[in-house]
Structures are given as structure tokens and as C-alpha cells.
## 1
Amino acid sequence: MLALLLLACAPDEETGPPTWHADVSPALTSHCVRCHSADGQGPGDFTDYAQVVDWQPYMIDAIDRGDMAPPVSDPECRDYVGSEHLVNDPTLSATLAAWAEAGFPEGDPADAPDVTPIETSIADPDLEIFLPAPYTPTFSDPDNPGNEYRCFAIEHGQSETFYVKRMAPIIDQTPIVHHALLFTVQDEDIPEHDPEAGWDCIDDAFIGGSSVGAVLSGNGMVGAWAPGMLPIGFEGDAGLRVTPDMKMVIQLHYYDAGPETRGLPDQSGWAFETTDEVDRPILIAPLGIFNFRIPAGVEAYTDTRTYQLPIPLRVYGMFPHMHVLGTRYEVTVDGDAGERCAARGDYDFDNQIGYIFREPLDIESNDLVSISCTWNNSTSNPDRIHDEPEDVRYGERTDEEMCYAFSMVSLGD
């Protein structure tokens, strides 16, 4: 197979072999450097010619095994912003192999095409919030060894209602931050606490409640971060509403990554681009399944639930979320317009992304919305928590499971 791929990419008299500047670097910039860069979560800096020469055989091996690029939502289900960067490039392995065969030519920098890498942060935010002070996790809860869920209330400092158009977390200590959630919360729903130390909130992922009523009243999720997450943005007339009386609460899940990371003080935060007014305020709706049981030893256990929404909604995007047993998800909408796919793909706990649709999805009040999750709770799952699989149910902890499609919605027409 490799011989056929090399033949397909073999140089001809007109084009010659692939070069670093014309072929290899542009492909890596488009598809790989969001993780494999100097400050990325993946190994190696694929912006560096010498490192790519050294890493090249391992890169080909990972691509050919199907480990890279990590799975993402299928754009043929519903296309989303950035899909051209996130979906695997089927020619990359052959390009790297042909480049190596030719002796790793650098080529002419003038031949480099103009490639804009996918954004991993917000370059020029007009609002940033951070923890009130650096916090060092203690991991002292005997019921949750190696894990600490900490919430911090933060003043956003704005005297007028504003709307979030784009947002991205600023994760300070990536070795110990497992995930981060951001909420808008009314004062009365915040417990008494030391402002600098926050409070333990392992059993309170949805601060102030997760019901539709709680969300509509102003308590609700604003943002989320997990490994792989990219900035979230809303085009046109939509944005997330934040009022002056709301505080923002960041929930950080810290995990003990080993002796070398203990004692690290973290001061993570969030960055925003805002505007004064929009026509369509957006809410985050936690579509999901809550009362499942994943049997021990089952390699592909699937649970599906169907809901009829009481009101019409316009869906701007979705963030699928499971834990380490998760392998696949699908969300569909069925109604007068026929069955439509909202999100579908293989799941990777280390590459969780919020997908902003290129075209919003309108759901009518009589439509049926189905969510399906598949988990691998067998010994064939290398990421399992328990060496001998146990039954697993819904919960916040890493050794429990979830099935969510956090949906960014506004009220429909």
C-alpha cells in the first residue's frame, strides 16, 4: 500500500518531489500545529523543519494506524466552522513518505502558499477574567483521590448588559487542568466562600440549576473547555447575554498528574469579544441522557433517548461530551422537514471540540430530537479507569460517564 502511495506522489519532470515550504509545512500548518506546536498539547513542534524530519516516521505510523488526525464530527452530517482544518487530510501520509524518499528537500520559501492556521486563542479580546488569585490544588478529598473540582466567583466588571460574540479559555496550568466550565450566576446562588480559595463543587456542575427555567432565568453555562477545544464564536445577530448583576463562575477540574506537577499554582481565566446588542440572545442547553447504566465488559454499549422540545429553537452549534469510555455520538432531528443530522462522529476524550455550524439548524416545537452515545466498557479500551471493568453510571467524576450535546441555541422564529 505504501508503495502505491509513494508512486501516486512520485515526482515528475514538472513538479518534482514534495518540499518543506511548498507542501509539507502548509499541510502541517493547516491540520496539525493546533496541537503539535511549541505551546500545544501534543508532542513535537511541527512548525520546526528539523523536528519534523526526526518525527516523520512516527507521524506516518500514527496516520496509517488511524490515530491521527483525532476523530471529529463528520461535516457531511452538518458542516461546521474549521472543518477543513480538523478533518483528516488523506494525502498527508503519502506526502510525508515521498518527502522522506526524496531526502527531505526544503525547497524555496517563495513557493509557500498562504495558509492560515486554525485559531486556538483570541488574539485581541476586549474582556478578560481570571481567578481572583493563584490557587494550588490540594487533592485532599479522600473520596475523590487525585481529583479536585473547584469553583471561583468572578466579577466581570461591566456596568451594562453585554453579549459575548467570541470566547476562549486561558488555561494557565495545562498539566493539571482536566476541564473548565464557565457559568453566569446570580449572587443568591453562590455559597459563602473564601474568594481566593473558591469552594469545592464536585457535585455541582450546573451552578444554580440545569433546568430550562433556570437557564432562562439567567443561571446557565456560558462556555466549556476540554483538551482540543477551540474558540467559540457567533456570526451575525447572535450572542450570549450577560447582565451587570451576574457574576461569572469558573469550575475547574484539577487532576493529579504526578509528583512533578504537584504544587503548581493555577490562575486560569477566560477571554471574550463582546458587543452591546444582538437580535438573538443565545443560551447553552444541556441536551443529554442522565439515567443510563453501561454494563461491565461490553465493548459497544449504546443508549439513545428522544425528546420533543416544547418550543422552537435555532441551534448554532453543539459540544458533544462523554468521558474516557465514550467512543461515538449522534444527534438527529426528525419532523416535518424530514430527518436531519446535527452532529455525528467517533469520540476522543483528548480532542473535545465545540462545533459551530456554518448554517444554523432550526428545530420546530413538534420535532423529535434524538441523542445517542456509545461507550466501550471492556478490557479492549486502553483508556478505561478500572483494570477489571465495572458497571458505570452517569456522574461528574472521571470514572463515571456522561452523554451530552451541549447546544448553543436561541428561541426560534
## 2
Amino acid sequence: MYTQEEVLDFVQEEDVKFIRLAFFDIAGKQKNISIMPTELERAFNEGIAIDASGVLGFEGPEKSDLFLLPDPSTLAIIPWRPMTGKVVRMFCDIQTPDGQAYKKDSRSLLKAACQRLKKECGIELMVGTEVEFYLFKLDEKGEPTKVPFDRASYMDIAPEDHGENIRRDICFTLEQMGITPEASHHEEGPGQNEIDFRYSDALTAADNVSTFKWIVNTKAASNGLYADFSPKPLAGEAGNGMHINISYRKAGAGSGVARAAGNVASAGAGRDEELLPYLLGGIYKYIEEITYFLNPSENSYNRLGSSKAPKYVSWGRENRSALIRLPATKGSARLELRSPDPLCNIYLALTLIINAVIEGIQNKIKAPASTEENLFDNKVAARLGFKTLPQSLEEAREIAEKSTFVKAVLGDFEF
């Protein structure tokens, strides 16, 4: 957690020659501009100008000046670049010329959501993600194919699993950049892999997912492969999900990794009480309205309802067919949201989830009864009468556009 002064000293003492200032477009795709060390102090004090009209979802040419201000706490050396004349990266806040936070900067929106949760509810969310991706071979021209890197299946080992060396390389690189992976393994689909992250605060978790996807793409390319995070790369095979595990801790209880939940004072309650049912209730209530942001491509809806991907608005204890699962734990309680996929803008996704949690806590929202039945059996699900998630991107967009909740959180978001 570097300060501005420490970053300036680090750059001078550690032979840093390039500083990458990273930010995200409205879809969550990472962008960056590189500056020289001589420009770093100006970047901290004034910001580095960019042309917003060239960024997906940002402003048109008539209002295109924005400024990047680096967040010194996110400094990381890029380990696959030369160690002589190092390259470092910092995530940035985006500001308008008058110094205001840019309304379409999804990272700033998540920061504001985290601050609101602390202020109004006295807690912060702890988030751990499980991200899946496929590895495909390239053709003779170096273009991606749909030929999987291997034909292994769930948790297979070498020689069937060809991805173990790449996963190891990815995990080592994550550690070099200050990120702690929790587990890695081959997933259900041919050439499919998963890497899970330990819990951290929501903003750090989002930064870690973004860094992780960059690393995976880079390591795949260096091994002559293509990494595919799309929700349904192969028809008839398992899709790529990004399960989001959520617990909470009292605000100010510490920093870094934690699995804290338990009892904390809720806003206006006047006593300690278990909040997890209200976290669950808030997410459950608004899940249809925010699905457009959790599942942002048409391909997303080909994944939902098959191969462990939930389709019905439901929750259950230890029930992997439910949309929200309360896993068996030997520590603090948590919930797992199973519908999001890796193409989502993780910053917008967590912003909406946190605001749903605030609604759940403040209004003491509780979900209906849990289900212990197998909802992957459509006959069983039909008998139980659960509502489904939106069945297409267009349906999800229409629901989001009509949502007063989404509008209150994101303002005049352009769908």
C-alpha cells in the first residue's frame, strides 16, 4: 500500500523507466497509457489527459478531455517486462477538467459504493472470485481456433491435463504482483481451467480480477495459445463462470485478506445481529434488474441453465443448482453468487451488488424459503414454480432500463 511519496522514491531507486496508467472502459476492458518517470509527479498532481471519445462508452468528441490520476496504493511491477529499466502499473481514478469524479469511471463508482456501505451500514464486503477460462490452440497464422489445448475433465492431472504448467506460471506471476491465488485446477470442459482467489475487500478483489485476466491472456499468448473468457466458448460443453463469494466484516476491522463475517452492528438496529440474511435478501430482490451487468453478452444466456450454471432465481444451502448458494464452511458464513460470467465489468457488478446489499440491510429484506432440490432438473424446477433469470441479453437490458434501482446507482448509464 504505497503512498504518493513512496511511489516517487520507488521509481527513482528501482530503475523504473515506464509507468503504465491503467483504467477501464464501460465494458470493463483494461486500457492504459505509458508515461516516463519525469511525468509522474505531474500525473499525481494534475493528471494525464486522455481523449475520451476513443474509449468505448465514454464521451463524444465535443466533451472529450478527461484526466487520469494514478492510485499509488495499486503500484505493481510488471514481472514479464525487463528487470533493467522496469515497467510498473498503477490503476487510475478518472476526473473531469473541473476535478470531479467521472460518472462513467466504473472503478470510482465501486469506490463510492464501498464508502457508502461503510458509512451507512458499518461494514465492508469481503469478496473472493472463482474465474474460469478456456485455452485454445492457434492456427498456422497465429489466429485463435476452437481446438482445446487438452481433452481433460474436472480436476484431472497430467498427462491428460496440459494446463498445469501454465496455471503454475500464472499463479507465480500473480504472487509477484502482490496477489494471492487460493487454488487452481482443470475444470469440467476440455481445455478449461479455473483459478480462485482468497478474500479481500471489494475494490482490491475487482483490481485482482482485472490483473488476473491480463496475466492469463499474456501467459497464454507466450505459450502459443489463446485464452477465452467468453461465457460459452463451445456448444455442448461447460461455460465459463465467475462465481462471486461474499462475506462481510466490521468496517475498520483490518486490511488485506479476511474471511470475517459474524456479528456487527447494523445501521439503525441498535444491537448486534447477523446480517448475512439481509445481504442475501438484497441480492435476491434485485438480481433480475442487475443481470444485464453480470451477464453482458448474448452468449451469456447460452450458458445459463446448463452445466452447473443457474437459471432460476433461488437460493439454497450447499445447493450448487441454486442461483445463490450458502456453502458449508468451517469458519464464518458466506454466500456464493453463481450467475456472473468473466465478461462482466467486475467494477460495475460489485457496485450494483453492494448497493443491493445496502438495500437489504436497511430495509431488512429477506429472501423466500431456500430450496434443497435439484434445479438443473427442469421438471423439478417447473413444479416448484421459480422465476427464471432473463433469458436473453435484450430481455435483461429491458429489465435494467426500467429499474429505478439501477438508475439510482448508475445514474444516466447508456445501455
## 3
Amino acid sequence: MAKTTPLEFIRQVRTETAKIVWPTGRETVMTGVMVVVMTTVLALFFLAVDSFFNAVVKALLSLAK
């Protein structure tokens, strides 16, 4: 494999970086909002599941008394 000089490496990196399609500000905000919404929905879902199992375990433990 041919060795690349540091200067050639920097040129290659700049060439590849120029090919990147960066998201617009609106796309970034919308993605951030979706992350917050989905995180909230999942948190509520897991809260409900955890509360359900907590109630089941408490009911089972109360039978053991």
C-alpha cells in the first residue's frame, strides 16, 4: 500500500469534506425537536410499564403476608 504524505492527506480530507451535504438550520431544529418528543414519549411509556410492574409486585407481595 502506497504511503500518503501529510500534505496529500490534508488535501484528501479537504476534498472529502467539500462533498459533505450539511443540514440546514431548520432541519437541525426539526431533528432536535423530534429527539425531544420521542424521548418524552419513551420516558412516559417506560414510566407506565414500570408503574404497572410495581403495582403487580406490590400486589403479589401483599398476598405473601
